[in-house]
Amino acid sequence: MKATKTTITMQDIADKLNVSKALVSKALSNKPGVNVKTKEKIRLIAMEMGYSFNSSKSFVPDSQTGNMAVLLPRKFYEDLEYWGILLQGIEYELQKYDFSMMISTIDAESADGLQLPICIENRKVDGALILGNIPLSIITGVQTYGMPIVLVDSINFSSHFDHVLTQNFYGSYEAANFVLEKGFKRVAFVGDESFSWSFSERLRGYKAAIAERTALPSKSVIESSVLTGIGGDYVNDEFEKKLLDVLKEGTQPCFVAANDPVALECIRIAERNGFSCPADFSIIGFDNISKAQWNDLTTVDVDKKGIAQKAVELMIGRLRETEGRTVQMMLSTEIIERKTVAFRKGQQ
């Protein structure tokens, strides 16, 4: 007997979670009265069960508005060194297809709860490019309006959405191997993995390179550590002491930073305390922002223009063909060698 495909209903979701159907309805339609954690849990379970989020007013390719929503965390909008360049690239690529960009920032830490941008609720856009650490409740909220979504460097690495990513893991893996090939035996990753998904992937790549090197027949002795207390936009009081302790311990260390701002802050703290780069220590960043070039920082280059181009191409393709499997695309990185990593071959 041929199996019949079952349609998942709100009641099915309510039964699974042991909550009311009314609560599920509110969560899925992004109405007020449901806290953020409950809303995200309900939407995540709905996705896992195969619930169809397509609204009754589903997106119709022939009725384009000519506008594209770009959503990103509010704090990222202040980082023009990285996200600003990415936004410029997205706008440039959208103009090739006669689309205008409508930017909306999301305050993920707002005490008033998370609300969808007006341009989404009023259907003033044809799709949404979602950048960075946007909560799942916002992403699935956009999905309820039946418009295509492309995630860009997002923490929500899900097969339910098209996604463009940097090879964070492999980029950091290569960075760690790069400094090990320079002869360094004391190395440390610098950055809080909880700051972002990309930071956690970069730490994972760093650890993989260290583990691989120490497992070689030569039994390389490598002193490895992780310095926490610093993110892309903050430095904890304890971090400076941790950094200086490593600098004072003897043989010259090399730091693999989670991104360029972290690397540049390490250099600033060290120099303020009488240490010089690369005479007393070496460091490699990640992202290749403008300040990295100005400060001759050795770093890992992220193809920001390529990310913008591929994200827009994916979106245009999804506008033309709404069906089909989602695409997960990873763009490669490249080490840019400047002046902050010295050659330490023969270091004991």
Characterise this structure:
The protein is an alpha/beta fold. It folds into three domains: 10-49, no CATH class; 63-167 and 304-333, 3-Layer(aba) Sandwich (Rossmann fold), CATH 3.40.50.2300; 168-302, Response regulator (Rossmann fold). The protein is 39% helix and 16% strand. It has twelve helices and twelve strands. Helix 1 crosses helix 2 (21-28) and helix 4 (80-95) packs across helix 12. The longest helix is centred in the middle third of the chain and has 18 residues, at 197-214.
Strand order of the largest sheet: 2-1-3-4-5-11
Number of helices: 12
In angstroms, what separates the terminal alpha carbons?
Answer: 72 Å
CATH architecture of the largest domain: 3-Layer(aba) Sandwich
Q: How would you briefly describe this protein structure?
A:
The chain has 348 residues and is an alpha/beta fold.
Secondary structure topology:
Layout: H1 10-17, H2 21-28, H3 36-49, E1 67-73, H4 80-95, E2 100-106, H5 118-121, E3 128-131, H6 136-143, E4 149-152, E5 162-166, H7 168-181, E6 186-190, H8 197-214, E7 223-227, H9 237-247, E8 254-257, H10 260-272, E9 282-284, H11 290-294, E10 299-302, H12 304-320, E11 328-331, E12 333-336
Parallel strand pairs: 1-2, 1-3, 3-4, 4-5, 5-11, 6-7, 6-8, 8-9
Antiparallel strand pairs: 10-12
Helix pairs in contact: 1-2, 2-3, 4-12, 7-8
